[in-house]
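Hi support team,

I submitted a single chain yesterday and got back a structure, but I'm not sure I'm reading the token output correctly. Could someone confirm the output below corresponds to the sequence I sent? I've pasted both exactly as they appear in my results page.

Thanks,
R.
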Amino acid sequence: MNYRILIADDHEHARKAMRMILSEDDRFTIVGEAKRGDEILPLTEQLMPDMILMDIHMPGLNGLEATRQVKEQFPYVKIVMVTVSDDVTNLFEAIKNGAQGYLVKNLNPTIWLSYLHALATDTATMPQEIANRILAEFTGVKSANDHLLTPREQEILTRVAQGLSNREIANELIISEHTVKNHLKNIMQKLHLNNRVQLTRYAYEQGFMGGNT
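Hi R., thanks for writing in. Yes, this is the structure output for that exact sequence:
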């Protein structure tokens, strides 16, 4: 399947770098580019991309607000925030506004392509490098909601916080990937969360970090 990509960044060198990375994978087609935040919504309506690579800081409208506007009108569009900063506040604000992913510009291009493809096919987890940076920022006590989770569910949530994929969690816990998916569904229902991105954020916020339980 081919995925239509809209690039939104006010810096030409950044757009060029993203074009070069995406050109390495024929599953991605760049359908347009936005240089200002206030161009993104009209271009989305015109071009109907599958995914937007969205810079956070742009003239006219910042990427966080542009994300909110796009997701209100075009909820199917997957939005990946692309930034030079790995500021955790930016990450959570982006997720709150509807973004599905977050990439730091200095990550290895191979990580970019594998992550974007996983995101396009709804199998993405946060890149390990970003997960490690975010985990380093968080300390704290687990919330009162955690008593709702079984020991196995807490084991899985811990590994979500470590940035592991469903397959990696299954291999580590010696269970099937299908079982992992069912556990994740149960966890999200118990915590009133809607998707893995929200689950990942919850895991970070509640201190599910560190090693195996």
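A quick pointer for reading it: The beta strands are 3-8, 28-34, 51-55, 78-83, 101-104. Let us know if anything else looks off.

Best,
Support desk
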